[in-house]
Structures are given as structure tokens and as C-alpha cells.
Amino acid sequence: MSARHCWRLTVRDEFSAGHALRHYQGKCERLHGHNFGVELCVEGRELTPDTELLLDFKVLKNALKEVLRDLDHCVLNETPPFDRINPSSENLSRHIWRGVADRLAASPAPQARAVRLVSVSVSEKGSQSATYLELAES
């Protein structure tokens, strides 16, 4: 029996934004702000033959930064799609996932298209986070 192998890469970043949770029925329904932490994880099975990298961290960090640029220092409730959906950590993690996935798929770096996005976690505080991932259907 041969072992399956893969590598996982993780990058972290943050952004600052204000939001109000609609229908919360508590103090978080009022406008307040956070320094949101974001953790992004990808995985893959093949290293590049020349540099023996799964993916240059720079490519991954740039894709994440591009998505976060539209959220940073904004009132999320006024920023699409959160002008329609609740700007919860759960919805933020899904939004960031989709934005990064689109950027990796369109990347000129072939190894960016070869990795699989595993998860995106968003934290409002260091002690709690919401994680979005898409599981393969069996």
C-alpha cells in the first residue's frame, strides 16, 4: 500500500472594518468594528520541478490581499454583498473563499491553478473563528 501525500500552505492577513449584525437582538446589532483575522489554507500534491515549491507564498498572499482590499476600512453593511446578506464571520469567510478561488483559477501561475483551496477562517477575536470549506461530494 502506498501512502498518499500532500502539502498544505497557510497564509494569514487581517483587515479592519465595521459591521452590524442584522436581527441579532443584542449589542452586536449596533454598528461596531473589528480587526478581523483571516487564515487561508490550500493543498496540493505536486511540487514545481525547479524550485520544489507547491506554490509561491507570494501568489497566495497577493490573492488574499486583493480580496481583502475591498473590505478593509469599510462599513461592511454598505459593501456588496453584505448590503444584502449579514456581514457575519461565516459569510465573510465564504465571500473571501470565493474571491480567492476566482483569483487562483485566473492566475497566470500554473501551480496556482493546481492547488485546492482547503479553508478560509475569519476571526473577530483571537479566541474564536468561523471557517468555510467546500467538501467534495461522495
UniProtKB/TrEMBL annotation:
Pathway: Purine metabolism; 7-cyano-7-deazaguanine biosynthesis. It holds the Pfam family PTPS. GO terms for molecular function: 6-carboxytetrahydropterin synthase activity. It catalyses: 7,8-dihydroneopterin 3'-triphosphate + H2O = 6-carboxy-5,6,7,8-tetrahydropterin + triphosphate + acetaldehyde + 2 H(+). Signal peptide: none annotated. It is an enzyme of class 4 (lyase). Its EC number is 4.1.2.50. InterPro entries: 6-PTP_synth/QueD, 6-PTP_synth/QueD_sf. It comes from the Bacteria. NCBIfam families: queuosine_QueD. Belongs to the PTPS family. QueD subfamily. PANTHER family: 6-CARBOXY-5,6,7,8-TETRAHYDROPTERIN SYNTHASE (PTHR12589:SF8), PYRUVOYL TETRAHYDROBIOPTERIN SYNTHASE (PTHR12589). This is 6-carboxy-5,6,7,8-tetrahydropterin synthase. It comes from Desulfovibrio porci. The gene is queD.
